[in-house]
Amino acid sequence: MRYPFKSQLSFKIIFTAFVLFYSCATYGQTDSTVKQLVPTPKPTSFTDKPMLIVVDAGHGGQDGSTRGLFSKEKDVALQVALLLGQTIEKEIPNSKVLYTRTEDVFIPLYERIDMANRVHADLFISIHCNSMPASMRGRTNVRGVETIVSGSGRLGQQDVAIRENASILLEKDYKDKYEGYNPNDPESFIIMSLMKNAYRRQSIKLATLIQQQYISNGRIDRGVKEQSLAVLAKAGMPAVLTEIGFISNPEEEEYINSEAGRQEIVHNITSAIMEYNKEMIVN
Ligand SMILES: [Zn+2]
Question: In angstroms, rounded to a whole number, what is the distance separating the alpha carbons of residues 160 and 185?
Fold first, then answer.
């Protein structure tokens, strides 16, 4: 009876060593090395098939969120999101945009990203306005733009979404393996980790390009940030949340409510998506 026990123990040791080896071997490697190990989930280039983008207007309905002197975040976010969708479809060939909301309604955070997962979107972009707390001194002075990607603390929640979307991203015979996905299976474990990291890298890439575009129009750069946000946590695709300005700053409130300001913001985001696509095709 001792022999099978030994064998099981040996298996566990080999399994653990294997997983550790792969985790270490792939950590910090360049994109090209990772791509040799696994088919990296790339967003669709507009040269082969249509690109589907889900645009999410933050808040809505009873959730008005922040407000400025004369406007509410939920209304600004909706107007900018609708304009962004129109601009993307006009400027990016073969692109299609779906919205999480087109009117003033409340949609739970998880439902928003579930919509994107269900339609196997290539990108998810959430539009928000920033604000300093009312009690904060210097509240009205703070300004600038920032774009957020899901923090690594939330990576575990992406597993189901990635699994559901994986079939369209990977090779034919991979589907069978994926349906029987077992988190304890070393191969599934490694591929899942790499896919999550690939989405994270792609999200950071898009967020960086959006910030660069904002800066080119003289906006104040507050950087790309990682945060544990429920709306991004389950994304089975590259996903960003962009804060288009401080509604608590009177000058920025004017800007994000003006026609010229909105046009500039949506062109910044659209140009960033186009640049992102070009880089994904090249790489
Ligand atoms: Zn918000």
Answer: 16
Domain with residue 155: its CATH number is 3.40.630.40
Say how far residue 228 (Cα) sits from the centre of its chain. Answer: 12
Q: Determine the distance separating the centroid of ligand 1 and the alpha carbon of 168, expressed in angstroms.
A: 31
Ligand 1 centroid to Cα of residue 241, in Å, is 9
CA of residue 57 to ligand 1 center, whole Å? 9
210 located within any domain = yes
- Spacing, Cα 130 to ligand 1 middle (Å): 7
Number of domains in the chain: 1
Ligand 1 centroid – CA 131 distance (Å)? 9
Buried b (16+ CB within 10 A) or exposed e, 176-185: ebbeebeeee
What pLDDT, on a 0 to 100 scale, did the predictor assign at position 89? Answer: 97
Query: Tokens standing for 131?
Result: 């604000």
User: Has residue 17 been placed in a domain?
Assistant: no
Mean pLDDT, contiguous 10-residue spans, the chain (283 residues): 45 47 38 39 49 95 89 97 98 95 93 92 95 82 94 65 52 48 60 77 96 97 88 89 96 98 98 93 64
